[in-house]
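Field: sequence (string)
Field: structure_tokens (string)

Example rows 1 and 2, in order.
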Amino acid sequence: MKQSLAICLGTLLLSTAASAEVHISGFASVVGGQVLEGSGVEEFGLEPTFLADYPLVGAYTEEWSFEPDTLFGLQFSADLMDGLSATAQVVSRGADNFSASFEWAYLSYELNEHWTLQAGKKRLPLYYYSDFFDVGYAYPWIRPPADNYTWQIFNYTGASALYNYLIGDWTMTGQIYYGREDDEPNKLLSEFFFGASTREIWKDIGGLVVQFNRDWLDIRLTHMQYNNERFIGGEQRIWDNGSTERKGKFYGLSVNVDWNNLLVLTELNRLTLEGSDLDTYLVTLGYRFGDFLPYVSYSDFDDGSEIHNTTSVGLRWDFHPSAAFKIQYDDVTDDGVGAGTPDSWRVAGDAKAISLGVDLVF
């Protein structure tokens, strides 16, 4: 399904190149880093590790590497006129051995000045930076804090309706969406958590995003629910409720301030899974000095068993209109606890890591 959709949209973009306006844009991040010190998780034979990108298992060790955060992307947009357009985005990531894949592939139809309908493969709009997670130039950090951006599923195939309205001095935007995702093998669950090929299925994904913006203040609210099935090593998992499916409900709030030179970024999220709660949040403070933006950030993940947080200090330097140099120090504390030994619910252990690189758009 995913491959067929991407081929159809790619063919459409190419076939209309002679008669429609096709816009090509791109982005890239070239980042290197390493673990300065860390505990690892001895029980799992895991060496000192900093897990920078959960969905794609972008992990740094004590050996310097450019793979976990480095990526290149191209986006193709074809205006087919009369409100119809096609968009496709191809991304190649170091964390995925630089194999290229379609991250976005969808059609858009503009109903009127307020509403646009879309259908195809898109990024799941859970977090504030979900839609442009891969575009490092769009945010201050090297990457969005991993404690907050931890999901094993980050795309969906389905339909959505985007809207925008002016309410007094406020701009209201958002979307309503519905779809599903069937990921096999799921990289995070297969390679990092279970050590066996894992098929992760999210069915009946339905969500709503509402965002309000006025001058220096940006407020975003989101809600999503879905049904989850999972197969590990070919065997279907039976959840604690005795069923082959479990229902998840996600709630999120972001309040961001960009006032004069002061930058304050916040996100607060809760996932409810069959009566248990998983909470994450982040807070980032930054202050611009001309082309320089030093910042400090704190993020936290807590579901009662898996517990970890990260304190980050970094600097962004906009040395070019289309490029920024960044350097960031991360200090991760992994306090996971559970049955058996304290290591039972640790993800990667404590770690201190350094990373630096360049983000650009073109």
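Row 2 begins here:
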Amino acid sequence: MGTVTNLTGAGAVDADLDRAVQAADAAALAAGVSVREVADLAELAAVVALYADIWGRDANPPMTLELLRAFTKAGNYVGGAFEGDRLVGACVGFFHAPAEDALHSHIAGVAGDVLGRHVGFALKLHQRAWAMLRGVSEIAWTFDPLVSRNAYFNLVKLAARPAEYLPNFYGAMLDTLNGDDDSDRLLVRWSLRDPAVVAACSGSAAPSSVADELAAGAVVALGIGADGGPEPGALDGTTSLVAVPPHIGALRNADPALAQKWRLAVREALSALVEDGAQIVGFDRVGCYVVRRTQK
């Protein structure tokens, strides 16, 4: 039976915290996993191996055993999702500077054979409850803005809010997920007690609707052309829609040049809109960011 275990910490118990723990328990149960902190050396080694497999980096895994060991000793977050005794997902975060009252969630991944079971959702809700138990009010992380499933997960399923577009943030990564593409990232902030976050973690996600936005006068700032490539539009709308390719991973393998065109087009559109004062407020399952100006 899925469950959250070992959620203990220094935070005072309150109604929001109770609901956070209950939501984490429910998510783990629905995913059919147990989610808990990981500190044992052998289990930390399993985290390293899982990440190496996901990212295709056996010789240079995204996290090392020594670093994970140091993180846990220093009180940072390493969480694992287990199906029986088998680790099927993991999430790692470390604290910001003390004055910032935030945790940076650096990396999370789920084994390929459990994709679609919402194990990632269970991990993030465990991380949220863990952070709240320690009096932390916000978690931040980055993701590739071209990966539509991650955009939907982060902005809709979790109700995190975009804060900054970061061009080529990590430099060349050269793994099976990123290829030799630039590592642009969108930084999001997850305000753990925000009503929208509370609702999303309870299963009441609020996706955007491209059809509704277009009916209300939204402008297509970046669309998909007949050839499958990016098609620039207007950037002067009160509400703008910025499309991403349906399957960027497959596109990187099949047509790296076209994938790079998408990288540059999305970078230019989102950066220009945000620099002009607009905010990314949502994402539609069809693969569009909704970007809105409060003032023109």
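free_text_note (row 2): The chain has two domains: 3-201, 210-292.
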